[in-house]
Write a structure and sequence with these properties.
There is one protein chain. The strands form four sheets. Strands 1-14-13-17-15-16 form a six-stranded mixed sheet, with helices on both faces. A four-stranded antiparallel sheet has the order 2-8-7-4, with no helix packed on it. It is built from 13 helices and 17 strands. It is an alpha/beta fold. Strand 13 and strand 14 form a beta hairpin. Among the domains are: 166 residues, 3-Layer(aba) Sandwich (Rossmann fold), CATH 3.40.50.11540; 68 residues, no CATH class. Bound molecules: iron/sulfur cluster (2 copies).
Length: 444
């Protein structure tokens, strides 16, 4: 590390949200959600190709049974979170706002599970065996991106990798699911890190954790030495958990424009994904549940719950004893990068870290004004872009200029929009431009 003289590491630019909202749920120990009568398991839960559904209406399934098979290398298996009967393949509200296909399963109340896969002695096992197990258990990035984990752990041979970084920053306001996981199951996180590093054939492993989770840092530090993992305290700064910012903060390396973490010899994984890797390899169970923060100022009892994949959001809100007033906005994820939802029927997925309910006051849609050229968005952008100039180009339909000015490197982190006094819809513009540029590139 070329920044070893600094005790608390960080990256340049970014922002400091004034209210974090983590105090609502960070002290709430994870509770196991009771069995529901019905789950709607989204089929497309991974970046890449959705898996192929292999069950049909009337089929009896057990917990952990494969219900959709990966349909290519960049795809992920999907397993049933419950025993019962498949009612059908239905359309549900999708997390990104587009209707999605889901396997509807009616619980038989027995919660019968298939026997777990045999435990693998990961310290001795062939790395390929570990990788195959992770693929079989349907792991995807649980921090949000949902990239199949086995793909991320298989960099091309020409790319030299020397560092694995686990993201325990959890820099999004309100979310505390990763915090609770690090506190409550540190051995799973650390074992998962060691398993992943064995697959990659490296021994340089870091876990970056923001300093607002001192208790988690202490717990991990106490246990990390035997796993060969170093815990790195990070400054509380948004978006500290973004891959490129995390790599820069911990290693001092820059991912080149348009590049990937592997271009800085790094692989980055979320701490939840690491714990799921330990579950897959040691306990032999696929990814069918995760910790989700259910929170917000209008939630009666904010907290953290272990929810099975496919839990309708309305059921999670009921677990939190409902709301104190009519919510103004429902968001899956955090307030900065999460997705606003229209329906409480949207089901949770492998990448659902939080369910956030804002008040009507907080959900006010401010009218956008003209750019006053204050430059705050430029100072806040962690990717050193010029959000105001990009937005101006996009508004005039000049996607070519936006592309020349690296709009494709935009993380959609929302830092620019957060600080903009004119309330310019900067992220929406950048998202639109990226989609349009991708569309044009596919046509060529
Ligand atoms: S331009 Fe993109 S990367 Fe930069 S602050 Fe805005 S959303 Fe984040
Ligand atoms: S922060 Fe808003 S008003 Fe200021 S320069 Fe950027 S886009 Fe313009």
């Amino acid at each position: 590390m070329n920044k070893s003289t600094r005790s608390v590491m960080t990256f340049k630019n970014g922002i400091y949200p004034v209210y974090h909202g983590k105090e609502l749920s960070e002290g709430a120990a994870t509770r196991i959600a009771p069995l529901l009568a019905r789950y709607t398991v989204p089929v497309a839960q991974n970046a890449g190709k959705p898996p192929e559904v292999i069950v049909k209406a009337g089929d009896k399934v057990k917990k952990y049974q494969l219900i959709a098979r990966a349909s290519g290398f960049v795809s992920a298996n999907l397993h049933s979170p419950v025993s019962g009967e498949v009612k059908g393949i239905i359309e549900v509200p999708g997390a990104t706002g587009v209707p999605a296909q889901a396997v509807e399963i009616i619980s038989d109340g027995l919660d019968e599970a298939l026997p777990p896969l045999p435990e693998i002695d990961w310290k001795q096992a062939d790395p390929k065996e570990l990788l195959d197990r992770i693929a079989a258990c349907g792991l995807v990035g649980m921090g949000g991106a949902s990239f199949p984990t086995h793909v991320k752990l298989s960099p091309p041979p020409e790319k030299e990798i020397d560092t694995l970084i686990l993201n325990g920053a959890e820099c999004e306001p309100f979310l505390t699911a990763d915090h609770r996981l690090m506190l409550e199951d540190p051995h799973a996180v650390l074992a998962g890190a060691a398993i992943m590093s064995r697959i990659l054939g490296i021994d340089r492993i870091f876990i970056g954790v923001e300093m607002n989770k001192i208790d988690a840092i202490e717990v991990l530090q106490e246990k990390s030495a035997s796993y060969g993992v170093r815990i790195v305290p990070l400054k509380v700064q948004y978006p500290q958990g973004s891959e490129k910012q995390l790599i820069n903060a911990i290693t001092g390396r820059d991912v080149p424009a348009g590049g990937l973490p592997m271009d800085a010899r790094c692989v980055v994984q979320n701490i939840g994904t690491a714990a799921a890797a330990a579950d897959a390899v040691i306990r032999g169970i696929p990814l069918v549940e995760r910790i989700v923060t259910v929170t917000g100022p209008v939630v009666k009892t904010p907290g953290n719950w272990k929810l099975r994949i496919g839990t309708p959001v309305i059921e999670a809100v009921r677990l939190a004893e409902g709301v104190t007033e009519e919510p103004g906005k429902l968001i899956l994820g955090g307030p900065m990068m999460g997705f606003s939802q229209r329906s409480f029927d949207v089901p949770t997925a492998k990448n659902t870290s939080g369910i956030l309910l804002l008040s009507q006051d907080q959900a006010v849609n401010y009218e956008s004004g003209n750019c006053i050229r204050c430059g705050r968005c430029v100072q806040g952008c962690p990717m050193h872009l010029m959000p105001c100039a990009l937005a101006a180009a996009i508004e005039s339909g000049r996607f070519d200029i936006a592309q020349q000015n690296h709009v494709m490197d935009c993380l959609e982190c929302g830092a620019c929009a957060y600080v903009c006094p004119a309330k310019r819809p900067l992220v929406q513009h950048h998202r639109r431009a990226k989609a349009e540029i991708r569309r044009q590139m596919q046509k060529k």
